[in-house]
Amino acid sequence: MFYLSGCSHRFHTSCLARSVRVRGWKEEAAIVEKGELEGVVVRCPVCRRAGTVENVEEGNEEREGVWEGVGRAEAA
Questions:
Q1: Which domain holds residue 37?
Q2: Sorted alphabetically, which InterPro entries does this protein's record hold (predicted)?
Q3: Number of Cβ atoms within 10 Å of the Cβ of 42
Q4: Considering its fold, how many domains does the chain have in total?
Q5: Potential cystine with 70: which of 38, 50, 58, 62 (Cβ 3.0-4.6 Å)?
Q6: Would strands 2-4 and 41-43 be described as parallel, antiparallel, or unpaired?
């Protein structure tokens, strides 16, 4: 599962890659699919905020560090 740093929406790797590819960001989609996510900036397919992709282990509800980056939001 992945979070985007600009929002709190979560995505499976394949779902995020598909959304990024549909928007015409083929290079970013390939990076997401490979799991080489450090520094990749994409827009959330739900709220359209820009942010870097952050890996969050499944079942881990901690969001520490998730709010850093482009389109910063306040933690709830």
A1: 2-55
A2: Znf_RING/FYVE/PHD (IPR013083)
A3: 26
A4: 1
A5: 50
A6: unpaired
